[in-house]
Write a structure and sequence with these properties.
Strand content: 15-25%
Radius of gyration: 19 Å
Number of domains: 2
CATH architecture of the largest domain: 3-Layer(aba) Sandwich
Order of helices and strands: HEHHHHHEHEEEEHEHEEH
Bound molecules: ligand BV8
Helix content: 25-40%
Number of helices: 10
CATH topology of the largest domain: Rossmann fold
């Protein structure tokens, strides 16, 4: 990480001056907690599921063709979510939210995530927009009635809803529209933001991958924190190569040093 110390310093200064920050995260932020990403399913995957392509399974077509397989895949994914903990990258984003909203206003920070795992909330983030839904709520395919995961029994697959349909996770599958409210909250946050950070995402899934360009067109500075290069790496104002579990804590520490504020004790 030594090679991006200068960039961390530069972005930390931007964070000190920013009036409103939007952070977009992807599966890479949860990788250090032990959850497989979409592009590296074998990493933290398991023998059974790592041979499936998540991009093929996370579709309405796959669920309609084989509801048992897709339901079992989400059942495996949420059991993994329950087994893992937020990592230092999640905690750093929670700390940054508290620091910025206390220094300025509640709207000084918005976290927009593509992740459905709920680890940001467990890591202390409160202002979270779940652009692609959540694995922690399921709904009946017939009535649309939602239930928390804890109220869904997985004693057989697929799961009958009891109202003539099946239970499916409240996630956005490929080919499905994103939730109106999440889109509206994201657009409002982009309208007021002057600093946009893209963290742990391959920037390949639309429309999430276009948010950085929307922010730039609206006058925001743009930053990428990612382990590998992506289609936006050459187009952002600052690119910090590396893992978010190291870079985000270092960035928040440096921001507070520059602002002269003691770090908020991690709750
Ligand atoms: C829609 C939920 C329209 C489910 C997911 C243009 C405009 C609009 C749509 C499209 C378009 N072009 C194409 C489309 C269709 C499609 C799409 O984008 N296809 C892609 C493949 C081209 N988009 C859609 O279908 C969207 N719907 O637009 O609907 C519509 C309108 C009206 C009516 C009907 C329809 C819906 C997209 C959402 C799909 N659902 N997830 C679930 O999770 O099971 S997407 C899912 O995959 C994730 O949510 C995420 O968004 C995506 C994976 O991306 P990443 O999060 O970036 O993860 P990935 O593994 O790819 O990358 C990880 C990165 O982390 C890597 O770069 C790696 O280097 C890095 N990394 C790894 N470890 C670390 C790290 N970085 C830092 N630290 C580390 N430790």
């Amino acid at each position: 990480m030594a090679d991006c110390a200068g960039e961390i310093d530069r972005v930390a200064r931007w964070l000190c001056e920013a009036k409103s920050v939007v952070v977009l995260t992807g599966a890479g932020v949860s990788a250090e907690s032990g959850l497989a990403t979409f592009r590296d399913p074998s990493e933290h995957g398991d023998a059974l599921w790592s041979k499936y392509d998540p991009m093929e399974l996370a579709t309405i077509g796959a669920f309609e063709r084989d509801p048992e397989l897709v339901t079992r895949w989400y059942h495996w994914r949420f059991t993994k979510c329950a087994e893992v903990e937020p990592n230092p990258g999640h905690h750093a984003l929670g700390e940054l939210e508290r620091w910025l909203t206390q220094r300025r206003s509640p709207e000084a920070f918005t976290l927009v995530t593509q992740n459905i795992d709920g680890l940001h909330q467990r890591g202390g983030s409160r202002r979270v927009v779940e652009l692609h839904g959540t694995i922690h709520t399921w709904r009946c395919t017939k009535t649309g009635r939602e239930r928390p995961l804890a109220d869904v029994s997985f004693d057989r697959f697929p799961v009958a809803s009891g109202h003539g349909g099946m239970m499916r996770p409240c996630v956005v599958w490929f080919g499905e529209a994103l939730p109106e409210e999440a889109l509206a909250l994201t657009d409002a946050a982009l309208e007021r933001c002057d600093l946009f950070l893209s963290v742990g995402t391959s920037s390949t899934v639309q429309p999430a991958a276009s948010l950085v360009e929307v922010a730039r067109q609206r006058g925001a500075k743009t930053v990428e924190i990612n382990r590998d290069a992506t289609p936006i790496t050459d187009h952002v104002d600052a690119a910090l190569p590396g893992v978010s579990g190291e870079i985000l804590p270092a960035l928040v520490r440096r921001t507070k040093e520059l602002a002269g504020t003691p770090p908020i004790a991690d709750t």
